[in-house]
Amino acid sequence: MVLLAGCESIPDVDVPASGGSGAPAPDGRAASPLDNPDGTRPGLAPVRDAQERAEAAALIDKVATKGRGPKTGYDRDEYGYAWMDTADGVPLARNGCDTRNDILQRDGQELRFRSGSDCVVVSLTLADPYTGKTIEWRKQKAAEVQIDHVVPLSYSWQMGASRWSEGKRRQLANDPLNLLPVDGSANSAKSDSGPASWLPPSKGIRCAYAVRFAQVAVKYEMPVTKADKETMREQCGV
């Protein structure tokens, strides 16, 4: 979990965006995680039917388990600075726009950019998957929308990332698969929790959240705790 912190000053004038990068409309449309394995499509749609739940269960079953290790030595800087555009091996890297703004553009609608920029988002409308709310976000109140690491970086550190290469940690921190713009208060409540300790307030999205958590864990060959895996299975009716 990382707070949405601007690295650019806010200008007096902004300009409307010409498009929304295929992002979800404020009515909550979004891609199912099962149809979005690389995280480049927007949002987090519910897992709805029995076939999808079976697919979800099969994915979650692939996740290994182990005990959560100590947080000793963890520092956000171990994952590179936030938000870099140079984390190799992930979609959207080196496109001239930092990860934070890439994710805002991916999921936001009615985007407005800083004057003279086609990257820095200063306002948007977000259909928040965690709470089901529609948020009219302005950069002047940046913390109202935060970029969530679905698998928190501190959690990953305790589950083995402390022994990863710096390049792999940078990938995790900037991978669109592991990033969602969400309601700031919900993200703050989550902190560095796994699914056994925190789930999105919107119950209808919890299986999809478990799927996304599993997708990240499988991609990075990262175990989760036994309690977290059991909770993930429960959300998908397994």
From TrEMBL:
Residues 11-45 are annotated as: Disordered. Residues 23-33 have a biased composition (Low complexity). It comes from the Bacteria. Keywords: Endonuclease, Hydrolase, Nuclease. Residues 98-234 form the GmrSD restriction endonucleases C-terminal domain. The keyword Thylakoid does not apply. This is HNH endonuclease family protein. It comes from Streptomyces griseoincarnatus.
